[in-house]
Every structure is written in structure tokens, then in C-alpha cells.
Design brief:
Length: 172
């Protein structure tokens, strides 16, 4: 910023924000949200965007979630998350893939999920494009709709299932 007599003057702004991100396996933020400092994730006070990248890791698009009126919105009106990640204890090599978790929590058929931090069957880890649909929940297991994992590497250990609000929003 320029001040009197054409001299530079420091500019400061008091607009601190809280940031949250869900990164792909390359470390790029795919879902990025911000809110005023001290806003909890379950308050509808988040501005959220979905970012896509090309093979060179360059941003190709930024999409905004649809609000209650069906319009893409950059307003601070969304909930980041009001769910807890689920802990994966196994994934079958089958058609369809069956995921076993320590507890099913509030997960429901039709929820969109991402999987992260799996050792062994890394093909299922979130790469920015592989968002799965849950179906056929039975006890502590569910199927990944349309996913044939029979040619994937064997599940080793670990992993989490994230089915937060931000993933289940509609982006346009």
C-alpha cells in the first residue's frame, strides 16, 4: 500500500480465520474450508470449496457447494463436519469391496465417503477423485458401490473412513 509522498506503508488486517482441509494422497487440498476463528466444525459458518488438479498438480477448477436454494454459494453458511471418522479394520479383495470398521457410527447407505491412510491396499486411498458410495451396511461392514477390489494389493492395516458434511455436499 502506498502512503503520503508515494512511500510504502505496511498494511495490516485483522481477519483471522480457521482453516480446514482434506488433502489427496499428493498432499493437495481437495476440500478447503475457512471460518472465523473459534468457529466449531459443526456450526453452519464455513465457506467451503472443492478444488481439482490436472496430472501436473495445477489447479483446473474450484467448485462451490450448493446452498438450500440450489445455487453455488461462497457464503459462510455450511457445516464442515459433525461426524467422527471411522477406523478401518479390514478391506476385502472382492467384487464389490467390503470394508470392515471398528464401529459403523452414524454411517448410512448412500453416504459419500473417502478413505485415507490405508497400508497395503493403497488403491483405495483418496487421490482427489475416488469418492465412494456406501451400500449394504451389515453390522460393522459395508460395500463400496461399484468397486471391484479383487486385483488390488492385500489390505495390510490402518485407514479411516471420512463421511463428513463437506464430502456429502453437492458442488457446482
Amino acid at each position: 500500500m502506498w502512503g503520503s509522498e508515494n512511500r510504502r506503508i505496511p498494511m495490516s488486517e485483522r481477519s483471522e480465520v480457521s482453516l480446514r482441509a482434506i488433502n489427496n494422497s499428493d498432499g493437495n487440498p481437495i476440500f478447503l474450508g475457512r471460518a472465523k476463528v473459534d468457529t466449531t466444525e459443526s456450526f453452519p459458518k464455513w465457506q467451503i470449496r472443492k478444488i481439482t488438479y490436472d496430472s501436473n498438480q495445477a489447479v483446473t477448477s474450484i467448485l462451490w457447494p450448493q446452498n438450500n436454494e440450489g445455487n453455488a454459494s461462497t457464503e459462510y453458511e455450511f457445516i464442515w463436519s459433525d461426524t467422527t471418522n471411522l477406523t478401518i479394520t479390514g478391506i476385502s479383495r472382492a467384487n464389490p469391496a467390503v470394508v470392515t470398521v471398528s464401529s459403523i457410527g452414524d454411517l448410512q447407505n448412500g453416504d459419500l465417503i473417502i478413505i485415507q491412510d490405508v497400508v497395503g491396499m493403497t488403491e483405495v486411498n483418496f487421490d482427489g477423485t475416488n469418492i465412494y458410495t456406501v451400500e449394504n451396511i451389515a453390522g460393522a461392514t459395508f460395500e463400496l458401490s461399484g468397486v471391484n477390489s479383487s486385483a488390488y494389493t492385500i489390505y495390510g492395516s490402518g485407514g479411516t473412513v471420512n463421511f463428513s458434511n463437506v464430502i456429502n455436499l453437492t458442488y457446482s
